[in-house]
Specification:
The chain is built from four helices and six strands, in the order H-E-E-H-E-E-E-H-H-E. With about 120 residues, the chain is α+β, with helices and mostly antiparallel strands. Interacts with ribosomal protein uL14 (rplN).
Length: about 120
């Protein structure tokens, strides 16, 4: 279940790691009732290939350090669309152009959106 405490904790780690590496437009979808392999998709964008790679590396490092094992990683070398599989969470790190082209949010429009805005640390004023 996508709102299970451990899934939300892992999602928060991933969102913060992505934000820390300059990811933009984070969207999390609860796909538990629509997709048999994971409960949550996290979709983020990077501006250039190196940024996409840095974002995916940061997410993977932080989740691994928290004890979440990477099941599979695809696409890191190209830096255009990196897929990170952590079991309950699938992370899609897109180059901005690929994200616009594939429009996963539109494809999965039936999936409820998980609000991640509160998961991103804001700088103290």
């Amino acid at each position: 279940m996508a709102d299970a405490p451990e899934t939300l904790t892992d999602l928060k780690i991933a969102v913060r790691a992505a934000d820390g590496k300059g990811a933009t437009a984070p969207v999390a979808l609860n796909v538990a009732g629509l997709f048999g392999y994971a409960d949550t998709f996290l979709i983020v964008s990077g501006s250039v290939e190196r940024n996409v790679q840095a974002i995916s590396d940061g997410i993977e490092r932080d989740l691994n350090e928290a004890g979440v094992r990477t099941v599979r990683r695809e696409g890191r070398e190209s830096g255009r669309w990196v897929l990170l599989d952590f079991g309950d969470i699938l992370v899609h790190v897109f180059h901005e152009e690929e994200r616009e082209f594939y429009q996963l949010e539109r494809l999965w429009h039936d999936a409820p959106i998980i609000d991640v805005s509160s998961m991103i640390e804001t700088a103290a004023s």
